TrEMBL record:
Full protein name: Rod shape-determining protein MreD
Localization terms from the record: Cell membrane
InterPro entries listed in its UniProt record: Cell_shape_determining_MreD
Originating organism: Paucihalobacter ruber
Membrane topology type: Multi-pass membrane protein
Similarity section: Belongs to the MreD family.
Length: 168
């Protein structure tokens, strides 16, 4: 096993443990809950096998569902985010994505912010639409999506800034 694979496995385990043991117990005002584990899906290397990536995303969401006792909503949202990631990357990074040269630890904060914001909002919307599963609760779904997304984006950006190798 090479160093890159070890880093992927350790980051996977760390994000799962932080989400399952710490962040799942944070619930501000009844509808703000950060989902940091999707950072793994967002920064997974673009050049890797797509089918394997979808399976890993499912497994990640499944493990979070076990911690959260949420019946598969995180697995579904994680697979959905992993599935729509290529057009999201193309929209956010353009030519960098076309040439498979995206290095998430070295890209500028502006493009990463756009990419993260769209990805987090999509993921959270799927989570909350499946969690509430009632067409009469649209306002609650949108409110939970908005506030949880903002909180998750802030946490993800803080982590990006702290661990970025592109410090100027």
């Amino acid at each position: 096993m090479n160093n890159n694979q070890t880093v992927k496995i350790l980051s996977f385990l760390l994000l799962v443990l932080v989400q399952g043991l710490v962040l799942n117990h944070i619930n501000f005002l009844g509808y703000i809950n950060p989902f940091l584990y999707i950072l793994f899906i967002l920064i997974y290397p673009t050049s890797n096998n797509r089918v394997l990536f979808l399976l890993i995303s499912f497994f990640l969401g499944f493990v979070i569902d076990i911690f959260s006792d949420s019946g598969g909503i995180h697995a579904a949202a994680s697979v959905f985010l992993a599935y729509i990631r290529p057009p999201l990357l193309k929209f956010s990074f353009g030519m960098l994505y076309d040439y498979q040269s995206i290095k998430f630890n070295q890209i500028d904060l502006g493009n990463f912010f756009i990419y993260t914001t769209i990805g987090v909002f999509i993921h959270h919307f799927v989570v909350f639409i499946l969690a509430f599963f009632n067409s009469e609760l649209w306002l609650e779904i949108l409110k939970s999506t908005l506030f949880s997304s903002i909180f998750s984006i802030v946490v993800i950006l803080i982590i990006k800034i702290l661990f970025s190798t592109n410090r100027k």
